[in-house]
Amino acid sequence: MTVALYIVFLIIFTLLLLVNSVQVRRTSMSKFELNRRIGRGDVSSKAILHREMLLHDVLSLQRILVALLLVILVILAIAACGWLIGVVVSIVAAFEFGLLSRQPFVRRQGQRLYDAHEAKLLRLIEKHPRLFAIIRGVAHEGVSNQALHSREELLYLIEEADVLTGKEKQQIVRGLDFESQRVADHMTPVEKMITIGKKELLGPLVLNDLHETGYLRFPVIGHDINDIVGIVDLSEQLTIDAGKHSTTAEKSMTSHIAQIHADATLEQALAVYSDKRPGLVVVVNDKRETMGLISLSTILQVLLGRAADTNASPAQD
Length: 317
Description:
Helix content: 40-55%
Largest sheet: 4 strands, mixed
Oligomer: single chain
Low-confidence stretches: 139-143, 239-243, 308-315
Order of helices and strands: HHHHHHHHEEHEEHEHEEH
Distance between the termini: 92 Å
């Protein structure tokens, strides 16, 4: 009888190792991503989502089987060896079965058995939903292996994150959307530009008026707004005394400017500033007509997710 108990103990212990060694392989895609693909007609994603919903019950069943097999081991150990030795054997088995079940050979055997019978197990779960609903609560999620598979999924996760404030979410989303944002959506429109005629005298009164605008750089125009010939930077201008002659904007300006199309992206505008280092970037349309200005500070604000509505106030720097 004792020999038979030893044999049964070894069989149960082996089953315990095999059951505990199984790693249920889950998809790296989130439920949101699977539903997004299903919405686009991806049939395989529908099958994957269905399996994922059933795998939670598989994990619950695994946990219950491990607990049940441990109880049976304790009973068998006590029955075969008596209380004292049986309890010692049970404690050793309880501490060591986790380590032994992680051994490569054990894992391969357990995974092979599970993979061969997973389809049957999933069908069993489908046939008895009420039974598995009872045991469903004991599953543990473990470490998630989900990865991001689309931009929409990332934006969804940001929106659902409880640890972020509404402002933080807005900043992150704007920063992520930087590459696709158009210059026209962030430029200072032409009707709000503050310009200087190239023949205009930069006397004390004019300089004072320019200082009061709060901006440092001002486009200099020739015969009309479509003829921007340079830029006056107030930080480079010295205050003109009343007793001295005033100079013109044309003589004080720098002609280091650049142009970019209104439909270009902010990423392209940033590249213009990086490569050409202009004092000013003029936004134009297909006819080379001036549409507005885009400043480096505005581009950087959008990149950092801090941009406001630039059409509400000039972004002239």
